[in-house]
């Protein structure tokens, strides 16, 4: 297969290139090359999607195109230049396109979407991410109708993740001792290992799958998550469950960023955020490895490759110690 990945130099799109190469496909990765390089064995085409004629650098026809763009203009240009030259089209979207994060058990067919991005909005602003992805999906639909695969990914985790969200947990738990566990043990979580998602996307390009899929695991509990991480990194820890109200009162951020606890969101506003009904995706063959395996491999990546750049998510050791002390002495 002749596969074109628009991206291919970081995390998910890089994993898709790696997986397709492993299966013997002929892969082109097209990006600016500012962040990193695609895996060895791929043909790299340097192009900038901010440039109206950027896609002129790509020639010929493709059996499949995979696009991970976040900006509608970038998607519109890709569709206009390539939609007629590709047999199969995958657009990687996100569960952030949904407008109702409060209701658990929602499905693709019935879950309401956010509004598309307003014409005068800044499409590069991360605050507009969900709306921009809705508009990106609309650009794909305008160019390909229903002849495309729309992958609405949940949290993508594993080796190479630049966001440090799931990564915080293997890193923290490997240190052992008393670990601050946020919220309630039975709170739902969902995630997808980057390698499993990449494999499923390459499967889909091979078998011509189209349609819209919430592409993440079935939901499981935060206790199962943290225990699986501990098993994966081989450390015994004591989990101290600290409720939402205490964490919010102490200015701990949900989800990501400084002084945050990843894979924790506030309820009831976000009770459905990691409790989507993904049974249709599981039926379509997305299988997700044991979280313990993801945690073990992520720890290896932290040690061997992540380097000592500042952490983008999680608590520092001092922040966690302070919070636990305050919790016990309340
Ligand atoms: N991470 C998550 O948990 C999560 C969850 C849900 C959905 N998603 C979705 O999953 C996808 C993740 O993709 P990813 O891991 O490959 O990361 P990404 O950061 O979305 O990758 C963007 C790719 O596009 C290239 N690119 C960016 N700007 C460009 C431009 N102006 N011209 C040409 N190329 C450009 C980048 O390379 P250069 O910078 O070198 O050009 C890179 O290869 C995204 O679609 C994201 O919305 C992610």
TrEMBL record:
Superkingdom field: Bacteria
SUPFAM superfamilies reported for this sequence: NAD(P)-binding Rossmann-fold domains
Pfam families: Epimerase (PF01370)
Domain NAD-dependent epimerase/dehydratase: 4-81
Parts forming coiled coils: none
Name the UniProt record assigns to this protein: NAD-dependent epimerase/dehydratase family protein
Organism: Tenggerimyces flavus
High-level lineage: Bacteria, Bacillati, Actinomycetota, Actinomycetes, Propionibacteriales
